Amino acid sequence: MDEDDKIKKSRMSFLRRITWREVLQFIINYWFLGSLGIAILIAYLVPNLGRSGGWIAAQYSIIYVCPAMIFFISGLTIDTTTLAQAIALYRIHIVAQTLSYLFASALFFVFAYAAIESNNSHINTPVMAGVIMLGCTPTTIGSNVVFTRSAHGNAAATLIEVTIANLISPFLTPALIGMYMTSSPKWGVLRPGTSGGGYSVLYRSVFKQLGLTVFVPLFAGQVLRNLFPSMVKRVTIKLKVNKWASIFLIFIMWSAFSTSFYTGAFKSSTAQTKALVLLLGIGLYWIFVGVSLALTRGSHKIHFKNKYLDAIVGFFRFSKRDTIAICYVVPAKTPALGVPLVTALYSHAAIGEKEKSMLLIPMILYQIEQLTFSNLTIPLFRRWVEDEEEAMKADETSKSLGTTQQSQQQQQHQSEHPRSTTESDDNNSFTSAVMSISGDGIITETCKTSHNANKSESYDVEKAR
Prior knowledge:
By secondary structure, the protein is mostly helical. 76% of the residues lie in helices and 0% in strands. It has helices at 2-17, 20-29, 31-45, 47-50, 58-61, 65-77, 80-87, 90-117, 125-136, 143-150, 155-180, 198-227, 229-239, 241-263, 271-297, 307-314, 320-329, 338-345, 353-359, 361-384, 386-416, 420-438, 453-464. Helix 11 packs antiparallel against helix 12. The longest helix is centred in the last third of the chain and has 31 residues, at 386-416. The chain is globular, with a radius of gyration of 32 Å. The N and C termini lie far apart (121 Å). Mean pLDDT is 79; it is low at 420-465.
């Protein structure tokens, strides 16, 4: 009993030490997850408010406006030079896209295939087909940029990766899905069929969304940043626009959940299937992050005497800021492509609305997981990248100090020797004048030292005479 009393007293003392300031600080630090939970609750209670085709026409007011605002903010806050440098980082493009499309889709396929081959009657085959579709979709359009910037990673590189991934997705995603769906006859009517020209619907939808939500707002932000740099910097700091990007992201997820609750997608699948999808998403997310870290940072520990082998390993060596960008790009999967993808690949009548809604379940559930885990890793990545940021700041400070000292030395030299520059100019002009005389065949001798400039002048003039 004494030990129990001690434990109770220690717990009570711990609770007493927690002040309202600490509770408030905790809420502020994790405001994103709390706001996301409130948004999901509102979507469940009033799904008709934020769904596509609902009261506020979310298919336009949310799906287009909110991502456009996120990329407009990116255009305002990212330097044009930094963006151009990120485009030239071909190594990060190859590594990030290969992991995001080929490695991620293969792992999702393996687990989905194993699930349907287990012959478990509680596993819904359309949901497992949705798992394969989830693995083949590109990285998210908005959240990656927000999280990378918050974690002090290379946000410019993330922005470029998001653009590349969504540009190639209309061509690569259907091909990967078609390849994986030929693995077993159990997929049946879930094998994609686009006899009705479904791919054209997919292409139009994706490229229209990319143009209006990525390219146009990003270009507008960059134009304003370069035309009014001081005003843009002052406004972005005062209004804290990075926080607004996170708020727009919450609106996007609210709309996605509203649509899912409205269609009844969750009610049409078994509890075992949903539990399997949740556990699968948790495990795969951390596998993707772990592989990205091991590949990009573990390669720093491996060195070969053979220069060719070392060059191959060196291809995967990245800075911490670039690694953070890869760790957010690879695990993330966009829900924005889900509806047009289902419309394009399953335009034939053999698939009903119930099966189509079940195909979207893995995408919806995975969004909760990736947003939660991505938000939790922000403080971890911030602490991890601190030494690299301090080194960068020290390097920039030393460069600026060196430039300042050099200019100060030049000013001091000019103040101590005010006539040296004038004498040097006189010597140069005199030398050119004598050379012009020598061009007429007159032999002259010139003394090039500034100390004997006056003597050489009188000597040359007399000899010329």
